[in-house]
Automatic annotation (TrEMBL), chain B:
InterPro entries: ABC_transp_permease, BCAA_transport_permease. Keywords: Amino-acid transport, Cell membrane, Membrane, Transmembrane, Transmembrane helix, Transport. Belongs to the binding-protein-dependent transport system permease family. LivHM subfamily. The keyword Acetylation does not apply. It is found in: Cell membrane. This is Branched-chain amino acid ABC transporter permease. The keyword Transport applies. It is a multi-pass membrane protein. It comes from Infirmifilum uzonense. GO terms for cellular component: plasma membrane. It holds the Pfam family BPD_transp_2. One of its GO terms (biological process) is amino acid transport.
UniProtKB/TrEMBL annotation, chain C:
GO terms for biological process: L-amino acid transport. InterPro entries: AAA+_ATPase, ABC_transporter-like_ATP-bd, ABC_transporter-like_CS, BCAA_Transport_ATP-bd_LivF, P-loop_NTPase. This is Branched-chain amino acid ABC transporter ATP-binding protein. Keywords: Amino-acid transport, ATP-binding, Nucleotide-binding, Transport. SMART domains: AAA.
Amino acid sequence: MDLLLFLLDLGVLYSIYAILAISVEIEYGELGIPNFAKSAMYALGAYSVGALATRIGVWLMGVTWQGEFKNTSWVYATLVSSNISRNPLLGIIIFVIPLIVALPIAAFLGLIASYPALRLREDYLGITLIAFSELVRVFARNYEPLLGGTFGAGVPNFLAFLPVQLRSLAFFAIAIGLLLLIWALYYRLTTSPFGRVLRAIRDNQVAAQSLGRDIVKIRAIVLVIGSMLAAIAGVLYAFYVGSVNPDDFTVMKTFIVVLMVVIGGKGSPMGPLAGAGVYIALDRSITFLKQQVSLPIDINYFSYILFGVLLISVIMWRPEGLIPEKPPLTVSGSTLEVREEQGSS
Amino acid sequence: MLEEIFLNGLIYSNLLALLSIGLSLTMLTSKVSNFAQGDFAVVGIYAAYTTSLLTRVTPYMLLPIAFLVGAAVAAGVYLLVFDKLRGKANLVTLMIVSIAIDIILRASTQIYADLLQSSLHVFGRGFIFNDIMYNVAGTRVSGVLIYSTVTTIFLLALLYVLLFKTKLGIAMRASIENPSLAETLGINVRKVFTISWGLSGGLAAVAGVFLPFRMPVNPDTGFAILLSIFAAATVGGMTSLAGSVLGAYILGFSETVFTFLLSSIGLSTAYRPALAFTAIILTLLVAPGGLSSLWNRKG
Amino acid sequence: MGLLVVENLSVGYEKMEIVSGVNFTVEKEEIFVIVGPNGSGKSTLLKGLFGLVRIFGGRVILGGRDITHLPPYKRSLLGLSYLPQLGNTFESLTVWENLVLAAHDLPRDEFTGRLENVLEILPDIKRFMNRKVHTLSGGERQMLALAMGLLRNPFLLMMDEPTAALSPKLASRVFQQVLELRKNHGLSILLVEQNALKALEIGDKALLLVSGQPKFYGPAQDLLKSEELARLYLGV
C-alpha cells in the first residue's frame, strides 16, 4: 500500500517535470530559444495558487480573513480543506481559478519575452531572462501580502472531498492525464509542418526567413505556448507540495529542466519524457542515499555538483542526448520504394 | 551624505571594474557569457579568509594568494571545459555549460564553507573582515577605500602594460581576433587562452577579497552580484576591455545612488538588482554593443 | 629524400572526407603547384598539411619526420609556413605588432636580422609600420602576410591562392616574388592557385585535384601541355 502511494506520488512529480521538459523542448529543442525565465513562468502558476486558492476558498465560505497573510495562510488553508471535504465544488473552483488566472498572464509574459528574442543575441537574451526570473522571485519574497514572503503560502487540498485513499489516485490521474494530453498535442506539433518550420529556423534563421516564414509570429507563438505549459506545471506543483515558497523557484529549477531536455535528447519527441525520468530517478536515488548513509558533506550540495558535472559530460561526450533527433520524416519509406519502382529519371 | 554615497560608489565600482574586465576577457577568448565570474570572486574570498584564519594576517596582505587561487580555478575551468568545446559548441550551449560551472562552483564553496566551520570552528558563512582605519589629513579613512582604489588602478595599469607592451599581450590580442591564424604562426593558443582565463579569475578573486570588508558574504554572493557584473560589461561594451571598466564605474555609482534612493523611499534594498536589469535591457535594445561601440568605428 | 612527403593523405571536416588518397613529394628549392577547379579541395588539402582540419588517413612527413598528428603551432616551429588566403593578418593590430607576432619565438637579435632581410624583399612595408592593418588596402595586407610568412624563415612556404584578391599587375608581382624567393633564398614553395596558367608556368611540379581526387601528378609543363586535362579542368 505504501509502495503504491509512493509510486502515485512519484508519478505526479514525474508528470510535472515532464510537462516542464516538454515546454523547454518546444522552445529550446525545436526553435532553439532557451527561455531562461522558465522558472518564472513555472513560479507564476504556483504563485497563482498560493496567492489565490486559500483566499478564494475563504471568500466563498463567507469567512472574514483575520490577521496577516503570512502568519495565517496555513490555518485558513486547513480550514478551506475541511470545507472542501463537504463541498467538492469548492475544491474544483480553487483548482480551476488559479489556472484561469495564471494562463493568460503566462501567455502575456511569453509574448513580451518573444520581442527581445528578436533583437538580442541568444546569450544576452538568456541573461535578461534569468535576471527577470530572479527579480520575480525577489519581489515575491519581499512583498509579503502576495505569498507571505519567506513564510510561504499554505495551499488547501482541493481533493479533500474524496476519501483519503483515493486522493493520491485522483491527483495522479489528473496529472498523468494532463501530461498525456499535452504530450499528444506536442507530438502532433513536432511532426507537423509547423514543427519542421521550427527546426528550420533553429538550424538556419536566414534561410528560413528567405523562405518567407514569419519568424516574429512564430517565436511569439512558441514562447506563449511554452510559458503556458510551464504555468500549468506550476499549478500542479503547488497543489502537490501543499504550499508555495518563492525560494523554490530559482535559476536552479530552470537549469534542472534544461538538463532534462539535454539528457533526454534535444529535438526528439520522447526526449523530454526520457530526460524527466532520468532526473527523477537520480533525484530519488540521492534522497534515498541521504537517508541510508550519513556523510560529513551535505548531500544537497553534492547533488548540485553531480547534476552540473552530468550536464557538462553529456554536452561534451553525447550532445545529442539519450534519444537523438531523427532526420525529418516527410515521405514514408514504403512510398519511396514505390516511386523508385515506377522508374526514377 | 553625498560624500558617503561617493565613497561607497567608488569602492563598489572598483570591484566591478576588476570583475567586469575579467568577464570581457572570458567573453573575448571563449565567446561565453561566464556565469561563474562572480564565483571566482567568492573563491578569492574564501582563500583569503582561510589563510587569514590560519596565519592571523589581515586579508589585505593576502591579495596575492587570493589572486593565485582564483587564477588557478579559472585556468582549470578553461582547460577542463571550455578549451575542449572550442569551436564545437554554439553560444547557447556555452552559456548552459557556464551555468553548470556556476552551480558546481557554488555548491563546492558551500561544502567548503561547511568544512571550514566544522574543522576550524569559525563561521563559514555570513562573516566579515575587520577593516583597518587610517588617518589621512585629519580624517578617518577606511582601509578598503584606499586599498581597493590603489589595487584596482595598479592591476588595470599592469593589465594594460601586459596587453600592449609585451609579446604575450600581443599574442593574446591576436589569438582573440583570429585563433587559427595565431596557431598558424606558431602560437600556442591554448596556453594563451588559459593565461587569459587565469588573469580573469585572479582579478575577480582580488576584487572578491574586498567584499567582506563591506558586507557579510556567503557562497551565493558571487551569483548575487553577477547581474551587476554583466550590466557593467554590457553598458560599457562586453567586447571592449576599456568599455567594461567605464561601464563598471557608471553602473557602480548608479547602483549606489539607486540603493540609497530605495531605502529613503522605504523600499527594501533587495530590489537593488532592478537597476542592473533595466540597464541591461535598455543597453541591449538601444545600443547592443554598449558605449564602446559608439567610439569604435571598426566593428 | 624530399623535403615534404605526402603519403596517401585523406583530409576533411567532421564527418565529410573532402580529399582522398593524395600522394606527392616536394623537393628542396622546388616550386610545387596545386591546381584544380573550384571546390576541388585544394585549400582543404593545404589546411590538412598544416593540421587545421581532420586527417582521415595517410601521412605527412616533413624533413624525414612524421608530423601527421602534430599540433599546428609545432609544425610552424619546424620550418613549415602557411599563408592562408583570407584572414592572414591581424587586422586590429599594427603592422609592427603583426611582424613581432610572426617572429615571436625568435630571440631579439635574430628577429632584427631577419626583419632586415624581409624588408629588403618587401621594402614598402616600412612605410606603414605603425598603422593598424585594417586601414591598409588588400594588396598591402597581402604584402604583410607574405612578410609574416617569410619572417619565420621557413624551409617550405605554403601559399593558398595569394593572387585571389589582387589586380593582374599585383598578381604578376606576387609570382615574381615567388620565383625570387626560390632563386635567391632557397625556399621551397607549395602554391595553391586558381590562376592555373600563370602558376603552372613558374612551377616545377604540379598536382591536379578534381573533386578531392588527384588526377595528375608530375612536371608542371606536362600538365600545361596535356590539352585534354588542361582544357577540361583548368579552362585553359
